[in-house]
Amino acid sequence: MTRKQRRLLMIGGAGVVLAIAVGLVLNALRGSIVFFSTPKMVFEQHIGVGKRFRLGGVVEPGSLQRGDHLAVSFKVADGEAAVPVAFKGILPDLFREGQGVVAEGALDNTGVFKADTVLAKHDETYMPKEVADALKKQGHWKDDYEKKPSGAASASAAEPGK
Length: 162
Prior knowledge:
Elements: H1 3-30, E1 35-37, H2 39-45, E2 53-59, E3 65-66, E4 71-77, E5 82-88, E6 100-107, E7 113-120, H3 129-138, H4 151-158
Parallel strand pairs: 1-2, 5-7
Antiparallel strand pairs: 2-4, 2-6, 3-4, 4-5, 6-7
């Protein structure tokens, strides 16, 4: 076997090993990928029972109900549709009606979204990119969502030592 043939054989073998490694990584990640949907998309795409996804929107005012043993139910809406959500656990401190929320879980047979994780937006200017894009697409976007607080710039200018 010539030197050139050995080199080609080594490169080919390394390529096969690399392809197998990439295949194993992609196979392992396939089960953990979770997609984002708005309530309108849930109804349009007919997402199946038990399929995990992230549901994002606004907690519908008047829909929050607290039950026994940290059980909570509420509706997540996007202006066109609303999905009932059931969650058992401690909600984030900033969770409240009328605020943005992202819940991760799956639909059950009755059409209720069983969430195992609930995330609330962390301040008045933050909104997940997916939620903002969905609101823009549906025409519910307000220009003041993107405005930065005016006090932040003046506070840092007033303190020259920082």
